[in-house]
Amino acid sequence: MSGCGAQQTAPEKTAPKAxxxxxxxxxxxxxxxxxxGVFADEFEKKTGIIVRPVGAGTGEAIRIAQSGAADLVMxxxxxxxxxxxxxxxxxxxxxxxxxDFIIMGPAADPAKIRxxxxxxxxxxxxxxxxxxxxxxxxxxxxxxxxxxxxxxxGLKPEGDWYRIFARGAEGNTVTLKHVNEQNAYxxxxxxxxxxxxxxxxxxxxxxxxxxxxxxxxxxxVNQQKFPAVxxxxxxxxxxxxxxxxxxxxxxxxxxxxxxxxxxxxNSPAGRELK
Length: 274
Known about the structure:
Helix 5 (119-129) crosses helix 6 (141-153). Helices cover 39% and strands 19% of the residues. The strands form 2 sheets. Strands 1, 2, 3, 4, 7, 8, 9 and 10 form an 8-stranded mixed β-sheet that branches. A two-stranded parallel ribbon has the order 5-6. By secondary structure, the chain is of the alpha/beta class.
């Protein structure tokens, strides 16, 4: 029992906890489209966890994660993703969403590819016509897909008609604007095209071939290899992204502005959305 002369001890003040942040190395397209920002904002509101995206082509995003500087990655090149996991840098690929690539080119279409059903046949015609084709050339997911199509066509592109864009690593938005200025052919994701459509003279010439599908996944970085990785928070983010709530954001993203979604849900929960 305290006496009258006893000193009162002020309650000990504790500093407020800093919010937890996780780093996601991500392919640039979803960041440029704005959907990664929406993911981060909604997840922070729900959990208080801050998601910091670091944009890079898929190849560079993997290199960032392989240094232990990221807690998870968002990628769109299956071959590179599977190697990332097989090499022990990531733990598991989680299907997130998809859209598709399209082949764009000049309205005059000197290679005569308009309406071609096969992307590989379209590439053959471009090579035969030696019509200017501009590539990102940076081991991004877009570049990996392009090389997959050249391989299917049985061709190794080279010559004055085939150019690597020096700033390709800056992403599809910068690349497509440059290709438009050059009135050339290229392969690009549909989300980038829809966002820039009003600025472009180029036209969509080839689409809907199955090889043009563009699947995007998320992969947690392996905490056993990098103990500082925030695996608990990264997994919490992935579980939310692939839940009905996260997938509903994907289903509706872009509809108001473009009249159609920029991406489609692809997790097990997302595939069941009506």
